[in-house]
Design brief:
Layout lengths: L1 H17 L7 E17 L2 E18 L2 E13 L4 E15 L6 E20 L2 E21 L4 E11 L11 E15 L1
Antiparallel strand pairs: 1-2, 1-8, 2-3, 3-4, 4-5, 5-6, 6-7, 7-8
Length: 187
């Protein structure tokens, strides 16, 4: 029974990718959920934490190129006594390799701003600070074009969120490795 189910699933997958319809050009909305492995470097101390990122975006697709504006809301991460909350506002640019398949690899790059809030807790002392820095990213992924209007993305990005000055005037470097899954609807 399991062999039959695997055979049928494989045949359906091959049939769905055999002849890809051309994608439509135009505006789109996308929603991504990502897992971020954030690396914090502060005064020669290195820490990292994994968290979930919510990444909605709006953009436009023209042939093999996409441009979008993305807002990222990254959940709080707490290395030692400091908690961080980050929001990013990024202009993203994509190039999809024009293969005649439902699967299309792509490269992306982005630039924007990163707003980070930090709260330091120790005993009865609580300090808060925030800062906005220049952020950039670069990555790659794979799109699966389910229909002419609906696509799924699976990708990876390296994100450099700069060196915000936060609690105790400590310089913190924030670097993220982000894996994400997204759904894109083109109008």
């Amino acid at each position: 029974m399991m062999k039959k189910l695997s055979l049928i699933t494989g045949a359906l997958l091959l049939a769905s990718t055999a002849h890809a319809e051309p994608l439509i050009n135009g505006p789109y909305l996308t929603l991504r959920l990502g897992a971020e492995n954030a690396h914090f470097k502060s005064d020669d101390a290195k820490e990292h934490a994994t968290t979930i990122a919510f990444l909605p975006a709006a953009g436009i697709r023209v042939k093999a190129f996409r441009a979008e504006f993305e807002w990222a809301n990254i959940a709080r991460v707490r290395p030692h006594d400091t908690s961080y909350h980050q929001q990013r506002y990024m202009a993203q640019f994509y190039y999809e390799f024009p293969f005649r398949s439902k699967f299309r690899p792509y490269l992306n790059a982005g630039v924007g701003a990163s707003y980070v809030e930090s709260t330091y807790h120790r005993r009865r002392i609580r300090e808060s600070a925030d800062d906005t820095t220049l952020a950039w990213n670069a990555g790659a992924g794979l799109s699966f074009n389910w229909t002419r209007y609906l696509s799924f993305d699976l990708g990876y990005r390296y994100v450099d969120a700069g060196k915000p000055e936060l609690c105790d005037e400590t310089d913190v470097k924030i670097r993220d490795h982000e894996g994400y899954f997204g759904v894109r609807l083109t109008f």
